[in-house]
Each structure stands twice: as structure tokens, then as C-alpha cells.
């Protein structure tokens, strides 16, 4: 098991924030990533549809002999993780629970905001986990559906993005939240804009970082950490738009995505 790859999937490019953290914290691990760019976004789709897509992708990753699967998508974690986890022979991790644990530990006044897609906020899963950890927490959800297409377009520091951030987050600031969970894997790429909007007194929680920590802990407990006997060969699959994905990935990952060498990009239709 040690030298088998880790499977990671997302609705598009947002999951690359999780990949970046895995590469940083687990540099010896090989990654097989699937970005469902043909069907992005997941946030406005039903739970049944998201679960069906997630099941398809999980089966594809299992065909690549992965030792674990990370759902690097808050919406899919909320709707599909618990169902699919019962169906597969390898451990599965989502991004919601690690983020909730960190937010509960970070808050000082017990007032926590969760920003995410419509699906993630509608699921109420962050609120459920946070209240399990600390029943006194007050959780305020705010859907930010325009954030995903803005990130996908690469408009990270655009003036329009700042205006959208101001509009979305004003309601959370009125609730005196002191901690906000970036409840979509696209959102860490907007961290600077969000921090400018809410001010330095508000702590931002990045579930991508926490998920990589959780993955490392899980692999260590099973003695499944890669032994580092050879450099990892990462493979990335997308369901559409390979060139746009490549350009975006090369702007945020610590390695260049090329056709040869240690990183590969392929288009695969499910």
C-alpha cells in the first residue's frame, strides 16, 4: 500500500488547492487527480446528481489502484462522502470535517461564518459538525456562487471580485463572526480578497490545509506513507478544457504540468 498513489477529485480546478497542500506536506506521495471540468460547478446541482458524479469519479480512481481517495470538493464532501465511503475498499476523506475542527478551535466568541457554494451551505453539514464539537457555536452560512466562476476565469484580484466579496460578506460581518471557513476549495485562491473584506480580526480557515494534515495522519496511522524510494509521478485528468486547466494549474502548483516528465495531463470522458 505504501507506494500506491492517492486519488483526489474535484468539480474543476478548486481541488488543486488541496493538491498543493498534499504536495507540500506529503512530498513523496504520488497523486492522481480528476477535475470534472465538463460538469463544473457542482454547487448548484442536487445532492443526487453530485453523488452520482462522485461515484463515477471514485470508480475511475479506484481503477488506477489508489490507496485512498480525497474528495477535494466541499459540495461533494457534503452530499456524497458518507454514502460512497460505505461502498469502497479504501479510506475516503472529505474537506468539511477537518475545516470544522479547526474553526471550532480558532473561534474566540463562538460565532463562525461558513462561505461556500449553494449546495454546501444548503446541506448544513458544517453547522452539524461544528455543533457536535461545540454546541454553543453559532454558525452563519453564506452562499457565494459567483466566487467559483471568478476563480475559474482567473479573476483573482479583479475589481469585480472585490465588489462581489464586499456584497457577499457584509451579512456575516453584521453577525460579528470572528472566524470564517473558506468552505469551497476554490476560495483559498481568493484568500487575500476575502481577508481585505473582513479585516484582520477575522480568522480565515482553509480546509485544504487541514485536509492534507488529516490525510498525513491517517496514512501514518496505517503505516501507508510512501517510502520515498522514487520520485512521485503525478497524473491529472480532466473531463474537458485541458489547456485552460493546465495554465491554471501551472500558476498555483509547485511543479510544471507538461506532457513528459513527472507531471501528466490527460482528458478522460466518464
Structural summary, described in words:
There is one protein chain. This protein has 270 residues and is an alpha/beta fold. The chain folds into two domains: 6-94 and 209-267, 3-Layer(aba) Sandwich (Rossmann fold); 96-207, Rossmann fold (3-Layer(aba) Sandwich). 44% of the residues lie in helices and 17% in strands. It has eleven helices and ten strands. Helix 1 packs across helix 10 and helix 4 (96-106) crosses helix 10. The protein is globular. The protein starts with 5 loop residues before the first strand and ends with a strand.
Q: CATH top level of the largest domain?
A: Alpha Beta
* SS class: alpha/beta
Strands side by side in the biggest sheet: 4-3-1-2-9-10
Structural domains: how many: 2
Tell me the series of helices and strands, N- to C-terminal.
Answer: EHEHEHEHEHHEHHEHEHEHE
CATH structural fold name of the largest domain: Rossmann fold
Topology:
Blueprint: E1 6-10, H1 16-25, E2 31-35, H2 47-62, E3 68-71, H3 74-85, E4 92-93, H4 96-106, E5 111-116, H5 118-123, H6 125-133, E6 138-143, H7 147-152, H8 159-174, E7 179-183, H9 191-198, E8 203-205, H10 207-221, E9 234-238, H11 242-252, E10 263-267
Parallel strand pairs: 1-2, 1-3, 2-9, 3-4, 5-6, 5-7, 7-8, 9-10
Amino acid at each position: 500500500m505504501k507506494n500506491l498513489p492517492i486519488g483526489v477529485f474535484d468539480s474543476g480546478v478548486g481541488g488543486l488547492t488541496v493538491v498543493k497542500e498534499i504536495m507540500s506536506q506529503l512530498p513523496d506521495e504520488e497523486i492522481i487527480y480528476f477535475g470534472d471540468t465538463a460538469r463544473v460547478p457542482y454547487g448548484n446541482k442536487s445532492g443526487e446528481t453530485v453523488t452520482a458524479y462522485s461515484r463515477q469519479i471514485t470508480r475511475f480512481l479506484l481503477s488506477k489502484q489508489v490507496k485512498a481517495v480525497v474528495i477535494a470538493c466541499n459540495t461533494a464532501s457534503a452530499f456524497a462522502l458518507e454514502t460512497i465511503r460505505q461502498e469502497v475498499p479504501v479510506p475516503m476523506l472529505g474537506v468539511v470535517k477537518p475545516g470544522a475542527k479547526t474553526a471550532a478551535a480558532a473561534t474566540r466568541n463562538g460565532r463562525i461564518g461558513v462561505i461556500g457554494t449553494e449546495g454546501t451551505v444548503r446541506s448544513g453539514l458544517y453547522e452539524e459538525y461544528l455543533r457536535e464539537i461545540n454546541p454553543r457555536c453559532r454558525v452563519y452560512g453564506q452562499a457565494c456562487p459567483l466566487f467559483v466562476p471568478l476563480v475559474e476565469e482567473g479573476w483573482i484580484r479583479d475589481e469585480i471580485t472585490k465588489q462581489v466579496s464586499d456584497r457577499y460578506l457584509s451579512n456575516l460581518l453584521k453577525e460579528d463572526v470572528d472566524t470564517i471557513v473558506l468552505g469551497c476549495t476554490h476560495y483559498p485562491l481568493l484568500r487575500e480578497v476575502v481577508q481585505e473584506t473582513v479585516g484582520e480580526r477575522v480568522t480565515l480557515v482553509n480546509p485544504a490545509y487541514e485536509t492534507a494534515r488529516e490525510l498525513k495522519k491517517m496514512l501514518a496511522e496505517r503505516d501507508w506513507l510512501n517510502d520515498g524510494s522514487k520520485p512521485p509521478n503525478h497524473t491529472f485528468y480532466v473531463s474537458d478544457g485541458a489547456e485552460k486547466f493546465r495554465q491554471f494549474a501551472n500558476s498555483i502548483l509547485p511543479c510544471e504540468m507538461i506532457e513528459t516528465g513527472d507531471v501528466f495531463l490527460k482528458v478522460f470522458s466518464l
